[in-house]
Amino acid sequence: MKSYPIILIVLIIFFGLSSCISIKKYNEQRTTCISPDQMKEDVDFSYSKLKEMHPQLYWYISKEELDFKFDSLKRTIKEPLTPIQFYFKLQPVITSIREGHLALRIPRKKFTKKEIKALEHKKGIFSRFEYYIKDDHLYIIKNNDSIENIKPGTEILSINDIPVSEYIKKYKKLINSDGLNTTFQPYFLKDVFFNFYTAEYGVNEKATIKTLYDHEKKIYTLKREAKSEEDLKKDKAQEKRTAERKINDYVPLSDSYNRSFKFLDSDKTIAYIKVKSFSQDYSSTFYKETFSKIKTANSSYLIIDIRNNYGGSLYEINNLYSYLTSEPFSLIKPSQVTSISTPLKTNYFRKSNPFQYIFKSLLYPTYFFAQSFSTYKKDGSVYYKMRADKPTKPNKDAFQGKIFVLINGGSFSASSIITAKLKHDKRVVLIGEETGGANDGTVAGFYSYQKLPHSKINLPIGLLLVKPNIQFSNTKRGVIPDIAITESMQDIIENKDPQLDWVINEIEGEKKAKQFPPTSKDL
Predict the structure, then answer these.
(1) What is the value of pTM for the model shown?
(2) Which positions ≥6 away from 291 have C-beta within 8 Å?
(3) Alpha helix (H) ranges present in 392-488?
(4) Per-residue pLDDT, 404
(5) Up-side HSE of residue 414: CA atoms within 13 Å toward CB?
(6) How many domains is the chain partitioned into structurally?
(7) For FRET with 238, which of 30, 37, 427, 492 sits at 20 to 30 Å CA-CA?
(8) Alpha-carbon distance 149 to 297, whole Å?
(9) Which residues contact 106 (CB under 8 A, 6 or more apart)?
(10) Of 191, 223, 255, which residue is a domain's last?
(11) Do residues 438 and 56 make contact, with C-beta atoms less than 8 angstroms apart?
(12) Domain co-membership, 154 together with 185
């Protein structure tokens, strides 16, 4: 019995060393050039896997056009490239499919646990700012640490002597929304800009930026500073999972909550729910408690804010919808897959350490049995069984008043699914911008993670065609708001919210009209 701890220690050391060797091998491969023939094989592999598993590959691009793009790409590959250089050639072709969920994973450098711990004890260079992108311009809109006293509204003209416009033009080609709308790209690009940058240039200790503010140009050298003891204590405190943090889905990285609720007036007639991500974690408890409070307060108006919400759980939006309707409903149509074997292509053992691999192996027969009976055929197509396409009853605390929903280009995936359904059922007034996700559905659900044979780049392929249960618009666009109101950079800097302000003013106008109805003389 006493030998078990020793064996366990030996195994931990063994697997730790194996992990370090694996990381070293990966990083070496990442900087090693691949031959043109090998890259062309990776191109063919990518396209063949997309045709095999993607259930709506030619939704926004014809087969002839996509064939041409892949063939043209292969003709441009004439010299050896590193995996990351190859990524910047292949990803724009993947982007042309115009499916926002479909993207190669950029081959970033991997770090050992020791290196990760060292980085955790330092502040980031670029992550301490918040950004805004318009056209080919990048602006700082928030400087929480007052670094170099850089003012909100400052434009970054160059990074390490390379114009920012060049980065933006290059990185724009790597991302896309669902379909033909253009609202998603600036929202998503501002969030991933420095992910692309650090993948391309590494995690460095300093960077030089040239800026423009109020017609004055300045040069700053940003450095990766060590965190103070107070910073480290704050990091540790943020990791604690209190009951409130669980229910509101606390995010330590941003020191904020994914879900929040409040009344916007003293008499509690206006309820406000903000959801930054449909993460599902403790969401049932959140909505149960929230709508109980709204019902008790007898609120007349509800505002749901899903701006900058990139989506998430179908279960959560199905549950949320049950609080917004008085009739039984089916949120989505049956979800199509390419074949009955598709559910078994989801990389069951992906990212499993040796211990998890052993545990999952024991459970695999159950998983295999469940997935094997998870599909059915109808009218010549194959569908995956989903709870969200079954009839759902309205919740007993369902809101019966007037509902406003705030949307913008950052409303994507599940946010667009629920928005499209609410608009179709005439349950809400939509305020803001066209959503970044498509009105008529998307391809996501769960993924098959394919690794390209030579470059080792990962290609996650969505396996489910998920469509809201509506009459489709067939416009290849996002969900269009009833009232179009945009938010400027200056609005954000000054903490103004023209979209929410419009709703509040509309509600106040309705309240006054009810309080002082027009008399026969007025008419």
Answers:
(1) 0.91
(2) 323, 395, 397, 398, 399
(3) 414-424
(4) 98
(5) 22
(6) 2
(7) 492
(8) 45
(9) 84, 87, 91, 174, 195, 196, 199
(10) 223
(11) no
(12) yes
Mind giving me the DSSP string for 192-223?
HHHHHHHHHH---SEEEEEEEETTEEEEEEEE
Nearest to 445 by CA among 379, 392, 378, 375: 375
pLDDT band at 522 (very low <50, low <70, confident <90, very high): low
Exposure class string for 502-519: b at 16+ Cβ within 10 A, else e: bbbebbeeebeeeeeeee
For the chain, counts of helices (H) and of strands (E):
15, 19
- Token code pair at residue 79: 């010299």
pLDDT tens for each residue of 441-490: 999 988 999 999 999 999 999 999 999 999 999 999 999 999 999 999 99
Nearest to 269 by CA among 299, 234, 246: 299
Whether 395 and 334 share a structural domain: yes
Cross-sheet strand order for the sheet of 442-451: 375-378, 381-384, 335-337, 458-466, 442-451
Q: How many residues does the chain have?
A: 523
Q: Give dist(CA 411, CA 181) in Å, integer.
A: 12
Ramachandran class of 84: left when φ > 0, alpha when ψ lies in -120 to 50, beta otherwise: alpha
Q: How far apart are CA 23 and CA 109, in angstroms?
A: 9
In DSSP notation, 373-393 reads: TSEEEETTEEEE--GGGS-BP
Domain that residue 173 falls in: 122-223
pLDDT in tens, 115-167: 889 888 899 999 999 999 999 999 999 998 899 999 999 999 999 999 999 99
Hey, which residues does 262 pair with through a beta bridge?
272
Hey, which residues does 469 pair with through a beta bridge? none
User: In this structure, what are the phi and psi dihedrals at residue 261, rounded to the nearest 5 degrees?
Assistant: -145, 145
